Amino acid sequence: MNIVSFGSGTNSTAMIIGMYQNNIPIDLILFADTGGEQPHTYAFIETFNRWLVEHGLPEITIVQYYNKYGDRMTLEQECINSGTLPSTAYGFKRCSLKHKIGTQDKYCNNHPPCKAVWASGQRVHKYVGYDVGETRRIQHAAPRDVMDKKYEKHYPLYEWSWTREDCIRVIEQAGLPRPGKSSCFFCPNMKKLEIQALREDHPDLFQRAVELEHRSAANNRSVKGLGRNWSWESYRQQFLQEKSLEAAQITLDELFPDSPGGCLCGAPCGCYDG
Predict the structure, then answer these.
(1) Looking at domain 2-173, what is its CATH homologous superfamily?
(2) How much helix, strand and coil, in percent to the nearest 5, is found in the chain?
(3) Rounded to whole angstroms, how far apart are CA atoms 144 and 218?
């Protein structure tokens, strides 16, 4: 029983393509949806599903978190209910274990083929997309992998010595678009350029992220916002102020259109005895 932990990013996409090329069977592809993925991630899943079907592979199975009452609970909703931010904003290395790993484990625990493998005393084979540049992550996981009685982990990208660039090349050669970064739209690990792109392309999602900061403000004693020591709201205000200054700035050429370089003396020296 071979299952793939799919994150809808570059590495896991390239890994599936590579497994297909190397005739490694795939029985199940799991994607854990936190409910807060960015639009390009959901769009890519639809595109990749078509490629999978065309190549005789199983479509992506999307798993989600449900609370003890059987209600769908997104990571965003959980943050709102608890008045907190995602755990990585507070310095934790992993975010949403409950919504990512937990949902996949729960699905497998109730999946008949997986249960049959475990009943026979064997382990389910799980494929993870760590590339050759992620040696430390693999080494860190090694002790847990050895002790895991349910799953035998495989890292084919590492075994094939594939770099990030190799993964991109393989995806492009397969005729697929690049997946884009897979993360929640309120991910504390987003870079400022990514935050700005979100604000420009999806202002509604950006505003929802800022609302999480507002709702959690009373409980955020150790951090200022999603940026840990700065908030997305403060970054937006800084950006708007800079844009406002740029728009209001009057150049010397505009003040003195008849003087090259903006100088009364007619020289581009910038002097002005005013």
Answers:
(1) HUPs (3.40.50.620)
(2) 50, 10, 40
(3) 37
Rounded Cα gap, residues 182 and 53, in angstroms: 22
Whether residue 19 contacts residue 26, with contact meaning beta carbons closer than 8 Å, is answered with: yes
Give tens-digit pLDDT for 243-264: 555 555 544 445 445 444 444 4
Place of tokens 């540049």: 133
What predicted TM-score, i.e. pTM, was given to this entire model? 0.84
Residue type, 143: P
Residues of the chain with CATH 3.40.50.620: 2-173
User: What pLDDT digit, counting tens, does each position of 3-28 carry?
Assistant: 999 999 999 999 999 999 999 999 99
Structural tokens at position 169: 């090349």
In contact, 60 and 31? CB cutoff 8 Å:
yes
And the tokens for 270?
A: 């910038």
Single-letter amino acid code for the residue at 265: C
Query: pLDDT category, 241, cuts 50, 70, 90?
Result: low
Under 8 Å between Cβ of 180 and 38: yes
